Amino acid sequence: CPSSSGKPNHADILLVNLQYVSEPYLCCPRVPSVLPSQPPVPVCPQLANKARTEKEEKMSQAYAISAGVSLEGQQLFQTIHKTIKDCKWQEKNIVVMEEVVIAPPYQVENCKGKEGSALSHVRKIVEKHFRDVESQKVLQRSQAQQTQKDTSLSS
């Protein structure tokens, strides 16, 4: 398909897992009833890497949910993972670069590891994450209050 981004040298690709297709059929009568066999679509390394990465991220999310990790912990993991790819779950703990462990309730004081640049960097990411979460909550509360005022005035 043409690219939804509008870039001329890109295209959208829709992948269908044929394991979930029970009975293929043609929906357009003008198309011949027998489709010519198509050569397999070559998968470029970038696409294969992206698919593998996406799968790993989804599996990590699924693990966190099944392990009973809090929503705050899951969000923190995603925030750290955006910056540091070497980030994984070890039961309910977040392990970053095999050096820093963040235990529930996932606050700055729960970051443990050998003192150094890795621990300092992870602590800064955790601090910023919670500052951003708090500022988002403040913004949402002020928007809710404004909506409430607007509703009261229009009544």
From TrEMBL:
Domain AD: 40-134
InterPro entries (UniProt xref): AD, Lsm12-like, LSM12_ABD
Coiled-coil segments on the chain, per record: none
Entry-linked Pfam families: AD
SMART domains per record: AD (SM00995)
Name of the protein: LSM12 protein
Native organism: Nesospiza acunhae
Gene coding for it: Lsm12
